[in-house]
Amino acid sequence: MSISLLFFLIFLSDISLSSSLDCNAADRTVLLNIKSELGNPLELSTWSPATNCCTWSNVYCSDTGRINNIYLFSINVSTTIPPSFGDLPELETIQLQTIPGLYGTIPPSFSKLSKLEILFLTDTSVSGAIPDFLSRTNLSALDLHKNKFSGPIPLSLTKLPRLQFLDLSGNSLSGTIPPCLLHGTDRHYLYLARNKLSGEIPQDYGNGDIDTIDLSHNRLTGDPSFLFGLTKPMTKIDLSWNQLEFDMTRVAFPHHLNYLDLSHNRIKGKVPKSLQDVQLRFLNFSYNELCGELPKGRFMANYKADSYIHNKCLCGTPLPPCMS
Ligand SMILES: *[C@@H]1O[C@H](CO)[C@@H](O)[C@H](O)[C@H]1NC(C)=O
Ligand SMILES: *[C@@H]1O[C@H](CO)[C@@H](O)[C@H](O)[C@H]1NC(C)=O
Ligand SMILES: *[C@@H]1O[C@H](CO)[C@@H](O)[C@H](O)[C@H]1NC(C)=O
C-alpha cells in the first residue's frame, strides 16, 4: 500500500546515523529477551550480547542510544507477540509485517509505550479484540490490516488525538463505525474494508480532512451522500459491496476525486451531469438501481460498460442507446 510506504519513508528520512553510538544497556537486555521470546529466529543472528545493539539488524537507535524503531518482516516464528516490547520506553515505531506464525492477542505491556507513534501489525495471525489500552500511546498511524481481530472497533481509539491513518481492513470486526476516529490537521486516511461492520456511516466523516475512505465489503446501511460535495478534499472513495441507499441524481462529486467505487449497493436516480467534470482513474457504479441516460462530457469516454452494468435502466454510450 502506497500510504504505508509513505509513512515508512518519512520515518527513514528522520533516522540519524546512530551506529557509532553505544546502545543503552537496559535496551540491549530487553532486545535479547524479545529475541528469546520469539524463539531465537535465524533472522536475528546479529543480536548478540557482546555487541553494540545500535548496530543490530531490524532496529534503530535514537541519538541518545535508545531503541526507537523495531521492524520485523517475514520472519519464521511460531509464537505470540513478545510482551517485552513494552519494556522499550523510547519506542516510536513498531512494524511486525507478514508473519503468519505470530498469533495470540496484543499484549497489555503495549500500554506502557507512551511514545509509540506508528504501529504496523499486518498480515499475521494475531486475534482477539483491538485493545482499549492502545489509547495510552501517541499513535498517529495504526495499521492492523489482514489479521484475525474480532469484536467492535473500540471507542477508546477516538481518544488518540493525533491518529490520522487507520487501517483495520481484512479482519472480522463487527458493530458500528464510531464517529471521530481521526484527528489532527493533516489529511486523514480511513480503511475499514472487508469486515462485518453494520449500521450507518457517522456524519462527521463528511466534514473532516478525509483524503481516502474505503469501507467496502461490509454490511453498511443508510444514506452516505453527505460524504460527497464539490469542495471536499477526497481523492478515493470506495463504498462498494454494502447495502447503502440514496438518490444519486443531485450528488456533486469532489473535484480531486480519482477513484470512486459504489458498486453493489442500492443506489437510485440518475448518474449526475457533474460527473463529466471529474477526471477519475477508476469508476464503478455497477450492480445498483440507477436509471436514465449517461452524461456525455469530456471524461466520460474513459469509462467502459463494465463500470455501469447491472443497473435498473441506464442507457447511452458505452451502454446501448436510449429509446426516445
Ligand atoms: C521455519 O522454522 C521451522 C522450525 O524452526 C523449520 O522447520 C522450517 O523449515 C522453517 N521454514 C522456513 C520457510 O524457513
Ligand atoms: C507525540 O507525538 C508528537 C509528534 O507526533 C510529539 O510532538 C509529542 O512529543 C509526542 N508525545 C509523546 C508523549 O511522546
Ligand atoms: C465493477 O464491478 C463489477 C462487479 O464487481 C465488475 O464485474 C466490473 O468488472 C467492475 N468494473 C470495473 C470497471 O472494474
UniProtKB/TrEMBL annotation:
Residues 25-62 form the Leucine-rich repeat-containing N-terminal plant-type domain. Pfam families: LRR_1 (PF00560), LRRNT_2 (PF08263). Residues 1-20 form the signal peptide. InterPro entries: DNA_repair-toleration, Leu-rich_rpt, LRR_dom_sf, LRR_N_plant-typ. It is found in: Membrane. GO terms for cellular component: membrane. It comes from the Eukaryota. The keyword Cell wall biogenesis/degradation does not apply. Keywords: Leucine-rich repeat, Membrane, Repeat, Signal. This is Leucine-rich repeat-containing N-terminal plant-type domain-containing protein. It comes from Rhynchospora tenuis. The lineage of its organism: Eukaryota, Viridiplantae, Streptophyta, Embryophyta, Tracheophyta.
